[in-house]
Amino acid sequence: MYIKILAQTGVDEIIGDGATTARSIAEAWDEQWLNLLQNNSSENLYGSLTNLGVFFAVGTLLFFMMQWLKDLIYSEYSRPISSLIWPFIVVLLLTNTGNGSVLSSLTLGVRNYINTINQQVVRIGDSDQYYQQALSMSVAEEVVASFLRPCQSLSGEQRVQCFAKATEKTDTLWQEYRDLYGDRPWIVRLEEQVNQIILNPNNVSEFAFNSLLGSTIQPSIKSFLISLQSAFQNLIEVTMLLVAALGPLAVGGSLLPVAGKPIFAWITGFIAMGIAKISFNIIAILTSSAIVNGTSSNPNTNIDLMWFMIFLGVLAPILSLLIAASGGFAVFNAISNTSSWVSEKV
Question: CA of 203: how far to CAs of 22, 103, 151, 157, 167, in Å?
Fold first, then answer.
């Protein structure tokens, strides 16, 4: 969408696609998930890892049986009978029919459910396109600066003609923004600032130019920060895919007679990545909403949104990972305690 605006106004290599949404990123990974977990899974990487998980299961079955016999002798049959469910669970999850195992189907289902919740958060929380607006606000000055900066070194009639060409491009830009977001105060504010320069081309001071155009290095910095946002969201996707691929190993090692079974850690890691994805989008939406509905609603307010780009590109990913870590730890404790309680009751 944002590239469309730049293309129609004739701007090249300004910022790139800063309005990439979580949905487009998730959809780009859909084929990878299907190829790994379901399409010919008996011969691909997931099939090989499933075979390795079966090998682990067979190897750990010896330790399981030794512990089972020990419990059978000293525990009056209660714990041995309840623990027999684990071998059946492992066999059921790791059985590969060629179109995916039960484990791969469950993993894909959980991933799709997390994505559904994530898209509901984005759709409901960002119904007014706050995230896209905040990004557009952050880069709009850079786009306008690309139109006006060539006129800065000119004078007289050349400057007038340069501003006339810039006016055609900015008018198209304002119309594109209004078509996307309506007549927002931040659009009016920026348009008035530009008009003050364009309508008085021979009376424009260097200070007026510099206050609007800013530094020539800012577009590169903002482009880098926007790329960091996209890189983080893709990192979450590839991490979830990696965790999903290691599922058979976690299941195969779950017959070890230890309290913290690997399958619990695997489930926790998968859910934690989902929490990180959802947390990042919630943080982005809340911050964007505060910007659009806050100081930017005043047309006379001139704000520097570089902090917003730094926040989304650097701080928001760190914060969402911290939230995911704490949430994952809580999930792991809950699963472990539930398993212990079930074992005692069964």
Answer: 46, 71, 13, 13, 17
Ramachandran angles phi, psi of 217, nearest 5°? -85, -15
What whole-number distance in Å separates Cα of residue 343 and Cα of residue 106?
A: 23
SS3 48: helix
Which of 143-152, 184-193, 215-224 has the lowest average pLDDT? Answer: 215-224
pLDDT tens digits, 88-107 = 888 888 887 666 678 888 89
C-alpha 289/C-alpha 280 separation (Å) is 14
**250: amino acid identity, one letter:** A
Least confident window among 117-121, 216-220, 252-256: 216-220
Long-range contacts, stretch 333-339, CB < 8 angstroms, 24+ apart: 335/264, 335/267, 335/268, 336/259, 336/260, 336/264, 339/261, 339/264
Alpha carbon of residue 186 to chain centroid: 26
Q: Supply φ then ψ for residue 96, to 5 degrees.
A: -105, 120
Q: Enter the DSSP assignment of 312.
A: I
How many helices (H) and strands (E) the chain has is answered by: 15, 0
Q: How far is the CA of 195 from the CAs of 198, 225, 326, 331, in angstroms?
A: 5, 29, 50, 56
Mean pLDDT for all residues in the chain: 75
Structure tokens at 328: 């994952």
Neighbours of 72 (CB within 10 A): 15
Q: Residue 94: CB partners within 8 Å, gap ≥ 6?
A: 50, 53, 54, 57, 101, 103, 248, 251, 252
- Strand partners of residue 101: 96
Please name the helix (run of DSSP H) or strand (run of DSSP E) that holds residue 256, with its range, or none. none
Q: Answer for the pair 305, 192: CB distance below 8 angstroms, yes or no.
A: no
Helices 85-94 and 45-74, packing angle to 10 deg:
170
Neighbour-count burial of 116, counting CB atoms closer than 10 A to its CB (0-12 exposed, 13-18 middle, 19+ buried): exposed
Those residues whose C-beta lies under 8 Å from the C-beta of residue 15, and which sit 6 or more positions away, are 2, 6, 139, 142, 143, 219, 222, 223, 226
